[in-house]
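We read letters as residues; the fold follows as tokens. Both lines appear below.
***
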Amino acid sequence: MTFPADPQASTALPAAPDVWKPVLLRAAIALAFGAVTVFWAAPPVAGMGWAGGLYLLATGLVLLWSVKKTGLQHGGRTAKVLAAAGAVLTGTGAAVALLPGNLVFGIIGALGLGLAGAAELYLGMAERRRSVLARDWTASGVIGLGAAVALPFFIDLGPHALLGVAGGGAIISGVLWTLAGLTLRHDARDVSAEAVN
């Protein structure tokens, strides 16, 4: 998934050597949250708030860290959009954790996931010829938007259903980001080996 949209395009930028670290951390957070949602049979409302809130908060912090880690902190559209998505998820996560409730999780959580998903979809489309992460951002954006659209319809079904929708999206995106991170790590290792030779 991390290949440039057009392999012949000479404008595709190589990934920063350490870009795989925040990508794999994001994948681990998503998969851990997804596992919690699968195996927690009867979560209370407060547990749903804390689990979902910590997932959103941690994902937002990883997005903010990835801006710095990938060398994007010096400005530009990509850095600003990623930082905005990270800030939205961080704030959403804090709200969901501190104000537990089905309505808060279903509406505020959906807004956070939707805004972050729209930001990633935008980046995927805008950077498709310039970033190795463009396809991953596109797929992750679609997954985030899908979860955001579905969440409000499950408010009346309670914490287990809400966590199931959010967790389903997290598992899918976690697998996606795991594949992307492992590919980027492999590519970074190949570049390092070529530099030594």
